[in-house]
Write a structure and sequence with these properties.
This protein has about 450 residues and is an all-alpha fold. Helix content is about 85%, strand content about 0%.
């Protein structure tokens, strides 16, 4: 499992970490594309909006617990950089315990969570009814979905990204096949989409645990005095707490974006849901290099090596920038055709194409904030991430308040893109402090 800090940071090593993550992460929004496309074959914007609202709500809940993936990667990579195998394995046990506990809490609190979510949602009664059907199935896989964040973070820190690729392909491939079977084959509609995700997430947890079997061959994962050590738990809680708050701010942006879009009607809501799939594809693909930065920056921080930290940050960012230019060109050339494949509703197609230029701009504009997120996670400078996200969220809501009344859906998309700019600029101003921290 060791990823020694002394290993040279080369383009080959970066690609070995990043490319499997690029491929595996691309399957996650691909699942959203397929789910939206399968429902879109019904030719009715209401089920599309319902899957969109339901998926955004459950994803927002799960993504809040994304601190488990990010915190586990940053802390484990630093433990490996410091050559502390025992702490690296103990972090896996802590992550699994936290993941299952959080998932059970979501199940218990689901009536309150969903009531609050729909209180905020201005969706039509038809959309809300179908979205509730979706959520009442999906929520029962919460322990598996959240625990998988910890497993994924641990594997990334160990530079076992090929295992992450296999895990994601297995889980999302199964989900896609079941979506076709349940929706097209059995005509189960929105409930069929939800059931396919429920089955796939539990199957994914089983495979993820199998990939971690090597840790079980060592004694460290079950050294409970170490695993439950108060000082280490408090340190993990501090990191995860900051990332949790950061995730809340981020999800406030994306959830409110869909809800604000619903104010313009069911057709713009469906169009925005389709366009968000483009944004998810680009962000997940970019995360491959952000995850590479997490691992290599974490190793450098654990080893207290400033030069290696800078090289990890720069080389990963250069690769990410090139990939995003390619994505932007791809959306410009093929985006309209993809929209046509995703829905048979001519109304939704026409509206989505009006706003497609925002999806061309997003990859290039968003690259800085996504890469800086990875760099700060690896360094576990999570307080900075929390604070800069708070500033960016405030900037987003101010932009919506100013731009949406005047430019409607265009103003809403402009506010979202401007939030990326705010995040990149504010984190960039904090980067020099990371390099100084290696000298402490």
């Amino acid at each position: 499992m060791n990823a020694p800090a002394a290993r040279a940071i080369t383009h080959r090593r970066i690609l070995a970490i990043a490319l499997p993550i690029v491929l595996s992460n691309a399957t996650v929004p691909l699942l959203g594309v397929v789910d939206t496309g399968v429902i879109g074959q019904l030719g009715d914007p209401v089920p599309i909006g319902a899957v969109g609202i339901g998926a955004v709500i459950i994803s927002a809940i799960y993504w809040i617990f994304g601190f488990l993936r990010m915190g586990t990667t940053g802390m484990t990579s630093q433990a490996l950089g410091a050559e502390d195998q025992g702490e690296a394995d103990a972090l896996l046990s802590r992550a699994l315990i936290i993941g299952v506990a959080c998932g059970l809490a979501v199940i218990v609190l689901q009536p309150l969570i969903f009531a609050a979510a729909f209180q905020l949602s201005p969706a039509s009664a038809e959309v809300e009814s179908l979205a509730r059907d979706y959520l009442q199935v999906r929520v029962w896989s919460a322990p598996a979905a959240i625990a998988l964040y910890g497993i994924t973070g641990w594997l990334i820190a160990a530079e076992r990204t090929k295992a992450v690729l296999v895990l994601q392909v297995w889980m999302n491939g199964l989900n896609i096949l079941l979506s076709f079977a349940f929706v097209i084959g059995l005509a189960w509609g929105v409930t069929g989409v939800a059931l396919s995700s429920f089955i796939a997430e539990w199957a994914g947890l089983a495979v993820g645990l199998w990939f971690c079997r090597g840790a079980c061959a060592r004694p460290f994962w079950r050294e409970w005095p170490r695993v439950l050590d108060r000082t280490r738990l408090l340190a993990m809680a501090a990191v995860n707490g900051d990332i949790f708050l950061r995730s809340l701010f981020l999800q406030a942006i994306f959830v409110s974006f869909l809800f604000f879009g619903a104010d313009f009607g069911d057709v713009p809501l469906a169009a925005n849901q389709i366009l968000l799939q483009f944004l998810y594809v680009t962000s997940y693909a970019l995360d491959g290099f952000a995850f590479g930065a997490e691992t290599l920056v974490g190793n450098a921080m654990g080893a207290k090596d400033r030069a290696r930290l800078r090289r990890a940050a720069v080389l990963n960012s250069v690769w990410a920038g090139g990939i995003m230019v390619i994505f932007a060109v791809g959306v410009a050339l093929f985006g309209a055709g993809v929209i046509d494949l995703m829905t048979t509703s001519e109304e939704v197609r026409a509206v989505a194409k009006v706003y497609l230029p925002w999806m061309i701009a997003a990859p290039v504009i968003g690259v800085a904030c996504w890469m800086l997120d990875g760099i700060f996670i690896g360094a576990t400078r999570t307080a900075d991430m929390r604070n800069m996200m708070a500033i960016s969220t405030a900037f987003y809501f101010a932009a919506v308040w100013v731009l949406a009344p005047a430019f409607e859906n265009h103003g809403l998309w402009a506010a979202l893109i401007l939030s990326f700019v705010a995040r990149g600029v504010t984190l960039g101003l904090r980067y020099p402090a990371l390099e100084r921290a290696t000298e402490v």
